[in-house]
Amino acid sequence: MIKTGGEWVVEALRAEGVRHVFGIPGVHNLAIYDALLRQSAITHVLARHEAGAGFMADGYARASGEVGVVIVTTGPGATNALTPLVESYAGSIPVVLIMSDVASDLVGRDVGALHAVPNQIECFRPVTRWAEAVGEAGAIARTVSGGFDLLRTGRPGPVAISIPNDLLFAKVEGERPEGGHGRRPPCHVADILEAARLLRAAKRPLIIAGGGVIAAGAETELRALARRLDSPVLTTVMGRGAISERDGLWHAVLPNRRASEPVLKAADVVLAVGCRFAHRSTQGLLLNLAFDPGQTLIHLDLDPTVIGALFKPELPIVGDARDGLVRLLEAVGPDTTGSSWDHRWRGELATAASPRYTAETARLIQTLRSALPDDAIVVNDQTGINYWMEWRFPVLAPRTFLYPVGSATLGYAVGAAIGAKIARPERPVLAVAGDGGFLYSVNELATAVKYRLPVVFLVMNDARYGAIKWLQERMFEGRWGEADLVNPDFPALARAFGARSERVTVDTLPRALAEAFAADRPTVLELPMAVEPPWEL
User: Fold this and answer.
1) What is the structure's pLDDT at 182?
2) pLDDT at 181
3) What does the pLDDT read at residue 277?
4) pLDDT for position 537
5) Of 276, 273, 285, which Cα lies nearest the Cα of 391?
6) How far apart are CA 381 and CA 416, in angstroms?
7) Are 403 and 426 in contact (CB under 8 A)?
8) C-alpha 365, offset from chain centre
9) Which helix (H) or strand (E) holds 516?
């Protein structure tokens, strides 16, 4: 087969089962776009900014479990996608970024070539699992396939591939890529047997489930093991939905200190599965996690570098979460006698909340939950209500609560919601953002309109960066500034884009949501309301 480098990119993506790609064409990557236009297996979604395309791919990956793919052009087109990759890296989300570069004889020379960033690929190494610059046209397909193999084998995260534009236009002979290679490593049998022994002997076992459980598709095994052990389950923010939060054994979200800390301290054996113990959640503004010498920590994770990074386990287990949980169920056996947990005491703890969790905030969260189907996808940005939703909004199914917990970046929700809706068109998708965060990426509303996606964007308008104002007042004796905003008329702005729009109250929100989900295009709902964050300094 003789194809252009751009055609080999598309051939490799097709072989990996890619159905959608997100991106923006530019002069250097047009060979890829020419190949995309001449086939029908892969649908391209045209974004309005490369950051938007990156967030779309991230949301697509979180909602579907498939790899999100981004195609951008050289220099500023590529670097515009850096912020989304920061979030995908922090959240262990599988995203493949394919970017063009200047001609191969100009790479790294800093001679003023169009769009050139000297050594472009170096920008991406700190925020990717793998960043590779292709050096010859014949290596394009196997490099793309290699990125997918890596994501199937190890901890997920972004992969960046840079291809000089002359290689994309060059014709080269090659073989049709097969795709689909790579599998996650199993857990060591001896480690599983030792973990089962420790868990069988535990009086108060506790399971902490992270995003690795969802990435492995191990939700059923997690629930079965929790029941077998009569163990409460804490979930990280990335692990939310691994067990329904209506389940009696689900206890709380890990960083929700008032609910989680007493149970963490009472446990004698803790099994952490697919959990990084990220600093932001365990040593942050709420929980300051520590394990006592008398507690036994078992840490199972696909990535050996995260085990022991903050907390040294008595038993480290490297391997796939589903494999580990399946083997643990078999090794623990059916004859456990039940734990010593006081589940009534736990139930009282589970509702613990700060006095600043006001009736108004609670009512808004309850209204949103009751207005949405159990499998609706909720995409969060960063604003007052999102900080509460991080661990107060009930999550009932996996891949239904998208939260930029790693980078805590503004502007995530709009693009990620578009990606989620393209991945799961049959499900309602709600994006919740503040007025500040919404304007970070409001340009992508045009993308939602173009593809007639009935995504609902709920904009919480308090005319300020509310969390920043709150922090300033507490850190600097009540002084605050440079946090107040002059906003557009959000409903009028939405109509100018061609979207539906309405200004709502909490009382009118359920009706407005029902109408918006039934519409044939996106809807922007503005809710004037200020919500203080839950942090305890």
Assistant:
1) 87
2) 87
3) 94
4) 76
5) 285
6) 9
7) no
8) 21
9) helix 509-517
Q: Are 497 and 445 in contact (CB under 8 A)?
A: yes
- CA dist 522 and 242 (Å) reads 29
Torsions phi, psi for 334 (to 5 deg): -90, 0
DSSP of 371-438, one letter per residue? Answer: HS-TT-EEEE-SSHHHHHHHHHS---STT-EE--TTT--TTHHHHHHHHHHHH-TTS-EEEEEEHHHH
* Residues 5, 266: Cα–Cα separation, whole Å: 59
Q: Are 488 and 469 in contact (CB under 8 A)?
A: no
DSSP 3-state of 164: strand
Question: With a cut of 70, which residues of the chain have pLDDT below it?
Answer: 336
| Strand positions, DSSP E, 275-372 | 296-301, 315-318
Give whole-number Cα distances, 222 to 75, 336, 398, 508, 517, in Å: 44, 16, 12, 39, 32
Strand pairing report for 2-4 and 171-173: antiparallel
Cα–Cα distance measured from residue 389 to residue 403, given in angstroms and rounded to the nearest whole number: 10
Q: How far apart are CA 382 and CA 361, in angstroms?
A: 15
H helices then E strands: how many in the chain? 22, 20
C-alpha 176/C-alpha 178 separation (Å) is 6
**First vs last C-alpha separation in the chain:** 63
What pLDDT was estimated at residue 481? 96
Measured in degrees and rounded to the nearest 5, phi and psi for residue 34 equal -60, -40
Q: What count of residues does the chain have? A: 537
Amino acid 431 reads: A
For the stretch 305-333, pLDDT in tens is 999 999 999 999 999 999 999 999 999 99
Structural domains of the chain, with CATH? 2-173 (3.40.50.970), 189-350 (3.40.50.1220), 359-528 (3.40.50.970)
